[in-house]
Structures are given as C-alpha cells and as structure tokens.
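Quick one: structure for this chain?
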Amino acid sequence: MIIFWSFIGSVASFLGALALVGREKPFTHAQTLLIISFAAGVLLSAVFFDLLPEAAQHAGGVAWGAVLAGIVFLFLSEKTLFWFHHHEEEYEGGEETPLLITIGDTIHNFIDGVAIAAAFMVAVPAGIVTALAVAAHEIPHEIADFGLLLSKGWSRTKTIAVNIGSAASSLLGAVLLYAMGDRVEMWLPHLMSFAAGMFVYLACSDLIPELHHCHGEECELKNSWWQIPVFLLGIMVVWGLVRVLE
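Got it. Here's what it folds into:
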C-alpha cells in the first residue's frame, strides 16, 4: 500500500500533469489557477483534519517544533534550490538552472515519500489522505517545472525522463522509512508534524500567493471568483475523505 500510494503521489501525479500539458487546447492561466486553488485547499485541510490530529493522538500532543521545522526547512530550501512553482513571467530569463530544479524536485519528492510512509505507519487513512495531498500539489508543480525546463532548452523526451526519475525518488524515501520499522516508530508523529509544516508553507507561501498573480481582466472578480468555491471544494473533499476512511 505504501509503494502504491507513493506512486500515486509522485510518478502518477507527474503523468497526470503531463496529460494536462499535452491537451490539444492548452490551459489558460485562469484555468491553471483553479487547479492551484483546489491544491491549496487540499493541502491545508490535510494538515488540520488529518496530519496534526493523527500526530497528536499518537504522541499525546502536536510536535509544534517539528511543524516549525518543516516550515523553516522549505524556506531555506527555497532560498537555495528554487524547487517551487515558477510564475509564467519567470520562464524566460530566470536564474534557475535545470540542474538546481531537478535536484530540488528530487529531494522534495524523497521527503514526500517519507511523509507518506510515516502517515501510513501511523494509520492507513492518514497515509491515503497524505498521498492525495501530495498528488494535488505535485500536479501544478510539475506543470510549471515542465514548462520551465523546456524553456531552458531541454528536449521534451529528456524533460519527461528526468522528471519521472525525480518523481520516483518518492518511492525510495517511502521504502527506506518503512524498512527501518520499529527503529523509527517513536519519530513517526514528529515526521507527520514536519510534513504538516511543509504543507502549510507550500499552501500559504507558494500556492495561495500564486492566486493573486493575475493579468488584466483576470483580476476582475467576475473572472476569478471561481477560485473561492474550488478552494473550498478542496477542503471539503479531504474532510469527507477523512470521515469516510475513518
């Protein structure tokens, strides 16, 4: 189950992003923002309906230090490896290199795999919700990085192959943590809290600010109000899923 759901959260999410990129009629910027709205809702609700409650139940309280560590870790990583979503205006003339992007994505995916495995080792429902939350934010992430790597001169074939290999590092992280078994049991709630901090950072520092990057008519309420119900839909989907799985 850990291998399967890690695959869903990594390789499958990249293939899903690739299918969206390859549509005959490309997504508009406004449509892409709807995907990001849903992902932001999923990430935040996964934190407060699933990860933190499960961590608190198994550790007698939330490891707030681990939550903060997850936030700080991504902040420092953002400053060094530039592995996050890139605005369209950064596709040309940016300072990020394909190597840094690939290294950052690989480390990110590895940690996602560890988070999925940790959640599964605490409770199966928590693992499933975590994997789906990872997939939700990986899809817009991969769409952005795919376009960025192509703009840096990489061929389509090379970009696909490298991204699949990078996504597969999630499986490695999940398997390694599971193989450690009882030796990491006491750390599982801390790992879930760390993942919760990462999800909060991704949603509030990366995805939600992206929703405010509009152009011309996109900034008008009549053209952007759909982001609100889609964001709430992401929250309700996770809330309902948690209830059903429990």
